[in-house]
Amino acid sequence: MTPKHNKVVKHPFLRLLRYGRKYRVSIWQATICSILNKLFDLAPPALIGAAVDVVVKPQNSIIARFGITDVFQQLLIICALSAVIWALESIFEYAYERLWRNLAQNIQHDLRLDAYSHIQDLELAYFEERSTGTLLSILNDDINQLERFLDIGANEILQVITTVIIIGGAFLVLIPNVAWMSILPIPIILWGSIAFQKRLAPRYAAVREKVSLLNSRLANNLSGITTIKSFTTEAYELERLRQESEAYRQSNQTAIALSAAFIPVIRIVILAGFTAILLFGGMEVVSGDLAVGTYSVLVFLTQRLLWPLTRLGQTLDLYQRAMASTNRVMDLLDTPIAIHSGKLSLPTEKIRGEINLDRITFAYNQFDPIFKNLSLHIPAGKTIAIVGSTGSGKSTIVKLLLRLYEIQAGKITLDGIDIKDIFLNDLRRAIGLVSQDVFLFHGSVKENIAYGSPEYSLEEIITAAKIAEADDFIRRLPQGYDTIVGERGQKLSGGQRQRIAIARAVLKNPPILILDEATSAVDNETEAAIARSLERITQNRTTIAIAHRLSTIRNADCIYVLEFGQIVEQGTHEELLAKQGIYANLWRVQTGVRNRKY
């Protein structure tokens, strides 16, 4: 769905209907059951009126017109009809409850999956501009709010509409001269409901925004709990959370102050219609223009007509909350996907791994370009290294190769094929990334090594761990390969996480391996272990090593020195040292060598 569609379908309810087109059969079934349930629910007052007529004037009752004049028989018929009507009412109540609730669950389930799937397809720039808490609020709280409305509110609205149509029509047929007295409050109530709705809409939109900020704060603080403890800022963060929570509370109170006033106001309008029927309808009975049974029906129906309208306040409250949430969810689904997959399939086993960056230009959003006409050739099966100062664009190259961002000009090719033309999953399957910031999922060690490839056996997982020099420390863990690593792998050290990440890349067995500062945060012993494993896994595959520690890449086939988005030096370790340029200076700084004897 594109922004153009969003301009055509603006109202959140219409946007929801548009999304729910595949559920139209279920919606119709639930709607019919709700209407039928209300029809049978409105029948008992008519039976009461008929029973009154049987008792007061049995010879002129409705049933007597069918030739049954015995009072007992007439009452038996009314009892039998009551049993049938109550049974049908119960059956359709069960049906609509089940249908609406299942529909709510199905839409909630599909909407959450669709929203999450769409989020996964968005480029990294989208996430850099939004907090995790905001997205979690949409995926959980907003979608749950929509489910609550479908569970309860949709049926309430349908039954109120059915009540107004059926009872209003009965009044016009039975007592057209005083029917307007009971019907008159309805347009006033509806007008008031719409007025309340318009005033509630911005208030509930503000509530959704405030809860989003609150969730962002909570998610951020829980992720940074170590930093909070180390800086002893617990009281400071508690105060910031209190302010966010207070803003949410105040926003809710503003909405509640208006929504709570709805029912008391509506009660007064209902009272006017009810007393009018009591008074003027009673006078009609006294004058002989209205039967006692009919009068009884009217009094009951007036109460049944007007009193449910008091629930419009709660229903509108649910509706407005749901519509505010619908807008946020649909806005997420309407977010255009900037990076589209190519159509060309490229099986991993057919990839040689030759990469070419041809005069590419790239900038993050509105910032100055990181690269301008950058060209870089990476031969198949070779190990190349990229070094340079912080901010020179080293890690950006990785993101561009994975198409996490899109270049503005130039071309990146893999084996001579523009990566924009390659099926995105095939491109990313061909690349194994071991990054500086290793992310492990909450689960066991073996699940993290085999992440995304559950078909691998334990023997294959252990083999990959041995190649990554990780098997020894894994076996020393409390449950070995079944040890739970904790959220983000917090139970493991940095070096242990790095080696598990390398084992994961080994098991993936990609034709292209990218090591993005893979040893920057480990000790010398761990670095040596990682270096030994890398010597084994870089054989016969294209390897791109990005490093600050030059000792880890001195054996690369070619080293590129990147500064301010341009290649300023290139060559082997020895060739670059001989040039006495930027690389040689970096080497002297890191090794402490101050003369030319390397």
UniProtKB/TrEMBL annotation:
Cell compartment(s), UniProt: Cell membrane
Single GO term (MF): ATP hydrolysis activity
Keyword field: ATP-binding, Hydrolase, Membrane, Nucleotide-binding, Transmembrane, Transmembrane helix, Transport
Primary location: membrane
Membrane topology reported for the UniProt record: Multi-pass membrane protein
EC number(s) from the headed UniProt entry: 3.6.3.44
Domain ABC transporter: 355-589
Keyword flag Ubl conjugation: no
Pfam families, per database record: ABC_membrane (PF00664), ABC_tran (PF00005)
GO CC annotation terms, alphabetical: plasma membrane
Origin superkingdom: Bacteria
SMART domains tied to this protein: AAA (SM00382)
Residue intervals passing through the bilayer: 157-190, 255-280
Keyword ATP-binding in record: yes
Signal peptide boundaries: none
Segments forming domain ABC transmembrane type-1: 28-321
SUPFAM superfamilies (alphabetical): ABC transporter transmembrane region (SSF90123), P-loop containing nucleoside triphosphate hydrolases (SSF52540)
UniProt name for this protein: Xenobiotic-transporting ATPase
